Amino acid sequence: MSVRILVQKFGGTSVASPERRAQVAAKVSEAISQGFMPVVVVSAIGRAGDPYATDTLIKLASNIYSEMPKREMDMLMSCGEIISGTVLASTLQSAGIDAVLMTGGQAGIITNDHFGNARIIRVEPEKIFQRLNQGQVVVVSGFQGMTEDGQVTTLGRGGSDTSAAAIGVALNAEAIDIYTDVEGIMTADPRIVEDAKILDVVTYNDICHLAHQGAKVIHPRAVEIAMQKNIPMRIKCTFTDAPGTLVTNIQPDVVAGADAIGDRIITGIAHTPNLTQIRVNIADQENKTQTAKKIFKGMALADINVDFISVQSESILYTVRDEVANKAVSILKNLGFEPECLASCAKIALVGGGIADVPGVMASVVEALSEQGIAILQSADSHTTIWVLVRKEHMAAAVQALHRKLQLG
Ligand code: ADP
Ligand code: MG
Q: Where does substrate bind (predicted)?
């Protein structure tokens, strides 16, 4: 009989109370009764402010000394998932499930040494296999790994999704189930759009784009990893029995009852708030390329991520996150430029494999926003995405208007 491994990842809200953890245990039992060997990946308990949440741990040290070395910071941050893992393993034990907890390093997750945002190099699955073969459920602390020489690392925001995907690929799991507080991937963030619709099936590509554009429900890196080995991902709710969203490459007509992916022009809308638009006027038209090079080299050297770059006749426009805007401006001034800034903007992205084939989507976008009196500060498009930049105070109204105009609900 072949082994059937199922990775089940539970987010921070799923393990935040005893009642919720009982629901997690029920999902694990259900997998066992279906004949799976579950590997359970867990995030830190709760959200900012909760005692063991990642943000709370960060504050613990940064309140004392804001320049704490990243290596030590990673050790501190990794504790959140060790605590939640211990609590969850105990919950499973008390439900009669033989469970064992492993840290990321113990589970064989090997990363580079980019502390705070480490990348998984490979997963050595032997230790997990040994435990599974002894009939144990393996609980793995998400969001963390270990370098070749034993340093503890963390994987950056949403890193538990990435842990789950990497483990799923390394163990050749039948599926990677991402359990969270919503019933699947929706056409927009349900916190903003009340009638956002759950998507039955989405392609790895579409969800990867949506995630890169700010749809927080899953980390884009996790999708990329699962896609490499074509392992199906399912986004499900810990608290209900809804079928959730299947992320796959297979043709939708094979999946009974699903919308045809090909019929969809736009899969969903994502948003990213807290951006600053920077405008640098170009005095020297002759050397525009040189000017652009100078600006973006300056940003890169300071590790500032830039986005939404647009080189226009008189100026160069781009966005950075609000929190690094001051730094970006001082670099530009040092380079001899006089930048203009517009803080508190938001980027809205419409994502869908069919956008390129349908004329008039951009026209609908412009119409929807102008009807609401919302100014478009910048826009761009590719064969899968249309982006607009608006003021943050307009973000929710803009997402709602676009969702309505494009009939995604
Ligand atoms: P977890 O802690 O389980 O990883 P996250 O907060 O990372 O949970 O992700 C779930 C949240 O993602 C939801 O509560 C929802 O508000 C948000 N979200 C943003 N965009 C979407 C979307 N397109 N579909 C579903 N949820 C979304
Ligand atoms: Mg998450």
A: 54, 81
Q: Is 107 helix (H, G, I), strand (E, B) or coil?
A: coil
Query: Following DSSP, what letter does each residue of 66-106 receive, concatenated?
Result: TT--HHHHHHHHHHHHHHHHHHHHHHHHHTT--EEEE-TTT
86 among annotated binding-site residues: no
190 alpha carbon – ligand 2 mean position (Å): 15
**Residue whose CB lies within 8 A of the most ligand 1 atoms, among 41, 162, 178, 180, for a mutation test:** 180
| Cβ–Cβ < 8 Å for 144, 109 | yes
H runs (alpha helix) in 229-360: 288-301, 325-334
| Amino acid code (one letter) for 337 | F
Q: pLDDT digit string (tens) for 348-383?
A: 999 988 787 778 899 999 999 999 999 999 999 998
Q: What is the CA radius of gyration of the chain?
A: 23
Q: How far is the CA of 270 from the centre of ligand 1 (A)?
A: 11
Buried residues in 352-380 as b, exposed as e (16+ CB within 10 A): bbbbeeeeebeebbeebbeeeebebbbbe
Residue 54 labeled ligand binder? yes
Residue 211, token pair as written in the block:
């995630």
- On whether the 268-405 domain is CATH 3.30.420.40, my answer is no
Q: How far is CA 192 from CA 183, 270, 271, in A?
A: 16, 10, 10
Instruction: Tell me the torsion sign for CA atoms 260, 216, 235, 228.
Output: positive
For residue 356, the model assigns a pLDDT of 79
Residue 214 is which amino acid?
Answer: G
Distances (CA, A) of 127 to 40, 332, 361: 14, 50, 51
Distance (angstroms) between ligand 1 centre and the Cα of 22 equals 21
Residue type, 308: F
d(C-alpha 281, C-alpha 327), whole Å: 18
At 301, which amino acid appears?
A: L
CATH class of the 4-181 domain in this structure: alpha beta
Residues with CB under 6 A from ligand 1: 11-14, 43, 180-182, 185-186, 188-191, 215-217, 268
In this structure, which amino acid lies at residue 132? L
Q: What are the domain boundaries of the chain?
A: 4-181, 268-405
* Residue numbers in the chain where pLDDT is lower than 70: 1, 250-263
Other C-beta atoms lying within 10 Å of the C-beta of residue 2: 5
